[in-house]
Amino acid sequence: MSAFERDIKAAQPTATDLRNRRWIYVPYDRYTDRTGPLTEQPASDTGVVIVESTAKALRRPYHKKKLVVLISNMRHFAIEQQGKGVSVLYHFSPVSHGQALLELQRELRLPSLTCMTPAERELRLDLSMAQANGLTLDFVKDSTWASTSKDFLDTYGAFTPGKSYVMDRFYRHMRQQTGILMKNAKPVGGQFSFDADNRSPYKGEVCVPATLMFPPDAITQEVIAMVESTYGHHFGSSKNFDLPCTQSDCDALWRFFLDHLLPYFGRFEDAMRDDHLQLFHSKTSVLLNLGRLLALDLIRDVAERAATNQAPLASCEGFIRQLLGWREFMRHLHEQTDGYRRLADYVPQEQNPRPQEHSPNQTKLAAGAYKSAAGHDPFAGATPSALHASLPLPAVYWGVRSGLHCVDTVVAQVIDEGWSHHITRLMVLSNLATLCGFSPRELTDWFWFAYIDAYDWVVETNVLGMATYADGGVTATKPYVSGAAYINRMSNFCGHCQYDPKKSIGLGSCPFTALYWTFLERNQSTLASNFRMQMPYKSLGKKSQEELVQLRRRADETIVHLASFKRPAYSRGSLE
Q: In terms of C-beta distances under 8 Å and separation of at least 24 residues, what long-range contacts does 524-530 make, across chains too?
């Protein structure tokens, strides 16, 4: 038994505590006492129930560092609450959260529980199933968000299949609603978005500050040992764990970003480097998604830096757009579409897609493509694929080196850290998958277990939507794909690669460019009418048949090469 288990069990609530306190279930994605039901009565009248569930952790081969940061924050949160006078019922369980709560309630005669509505659909469903079996639990508003469902509905109306949902409309609504970066009902600086100022490659113009690290304390060290023992077969590495797990450390990470990174964040937001993997990104998404940091607090802090000229307006607006715009927009869309399940049989009428056309080798690969769980599994993920992509995700995503320096570098970072910033997620990992025609659902599930900040509401809308265009344009006006030119312009990856980004065919050519042109050709009937795709299709039309044949051959060689490596299998929590 670990020291934490021994100490937490010794402090279990008394019978008087169970009778006289208000009992609040704290989900694994809502570790906060800065908002919600924990703020509504004195600590002496408050009790919290926390469940550490082995069943949940084994559901997927979650990155080891994701499990460490989640469980260690969970344990530290329990200790922090005890220190404030809150009674803590901390329960280790081999079953799901909902089932564990039901068993606890029956065994201890716990009164009805209150729960701030969990962010993750999967947990909400688990708890609802337990309610159907007798668990008495009341959901209350999740006040960690910066917006409400009404904000989304006021912007777009009720969700309608076939309708496009452009984030900019929602972002403008939220700016006006909150008054953030607004003056006299107009945006500060004369425009809502400074995205055009946030696209510079990084070439050493300013020094990148050394990353702030948080060495694991005794509790975190125990969690690391437990993860290696219980979940040693999972994805990624737990070595060199340095993420914040106490509230004070979480706050320190945020202050570090405000003081040292925010001034340069916007300008280099889209830059990629193999020698500065984090650059000026905050790396706070994992803490936001655990509830350790609150979005509106961060937004107001950044707005204050803009108002006092402590950081450029473009940097501040770019960061606020990610939180007040994109993050909130995506979680609403996930809720309104029930995790894209309402899109399952939907195909936009104007696009008239046809089955994806593969070369003979690709067709062979597609025979083993990922199939989502069907039938009565309530946890099965939605599987939209407007471009009919179906090839299995290759072993490169598990760390088998492909020879593509950009891909190998980013995957190595994910294995090591469980994190990479948003442009490497979109324009390297997702770009490769979309161009090759890898299964959007399988890519989504990979992101879900591989990233420390990933939950269903994050990955399903982002990956099935913007990253792969699997939703047919619900969240993006065009597929976000590119050849080697974009990667070469925005990074230093190509300078350290065996492939030449300026060659599209022949020996030493970068596969990304051939994959890009064959992607356009393969999906021409679906995408050619898209007004944002007119220019690339005009360029495609100028290519000779001889060049097209060579491009197809180069792309096909790449996909077959990527498929030639054996993908690791997991003994539990496997997607295979």
A: 525/352, 525/353, 525/354, 526/351, 526/352, 526/353, 526/354, 526/386, 526/387, 527/351, 527/478, 527/479, 529/350, 529/351, 530/473, 530/477, 530/478
Biggest CA pair distance of the chain: 82
pLDDT digits (tens, 9 = 90+) for 256-302: 999 999 999 999 999 999 999 999 999 999 999 999 999 999 999 99
346 close to 406: Cβ distance less than 8 angstroms: no
Distance, CA of 267 to CA of 132 (rounded, Å): 51
The one-character DSSP state at 355 is P
Average pLDDT, the chain: 92
- Single out the residue in 319, 336, 353 at which a domain terminates: 336
What pTM was estimated for this model as a whole? 0.93
* Tokens linked to 340: 């894209």
Report yes or no: 451 and 430 within 8 Å, Cβ to Cβ: no
How many structural domains does the chain have? 3
Q: Where are the alpha helices (DSSP H) in 21-59?
A: 54-57
What token pair was written down for 222?
């125990």
Region of residue 359 (phi > 0: left; psi between -120 and 50: alpha; otherwise: beta): beta
Written in H, E and C, the secondary structure of 182-228 is EECCEEHHHCCCCHHHCCCCCCCCCCCCCCCCCCCCHHHHHHHHHHH
Strands 113-116 and 137-140 turn out to be parallel
Q: What is the DSSP string of 378-393?
A: TTPPP---TT---BPP
**Among 553, 558, 482, 541, residue whose Cα is nearest residue 513:** 482
- List pLDDT tens digits, range 331-364: 999 999 999 998 855 444 333 333 344 443 333 3
CATH of residue 73's domain is 3.40.50.620
| Domain housing 193 | 149-336
Instruction: Provide the CATH number for the domain around residue 442.
Output: 1.10.579.10
Task: Give the β-pairing of 186-187 and 182-183.
Answer: antiparallel
Q: Does residue 466 sit in helix, strand or coil?
A: helix
Give residue-wise pLDDT tens across range 136-189: 999 999 999 999 999 999 999 999 888 889 999 999 999 999 999 999 999 999
**Residues 414 and 443 reside in one and the same domain:** yes
Q: Are residues 460 and 347 in the same domain?
A: yes
Spatial distance between the Cα atoms of 231 and 63, rounded to a whole number of angstroms:
9
Question: Is there a single domain that holds both residue 90 and residue 179?
Answer: no
- Nearest CA among 90, 87, 139, 97 for reference residue 114: 139
23 phi/psi in degrees, rounded to 5: -100, 125
Which residues is 139 bridged to in the sheet?
115
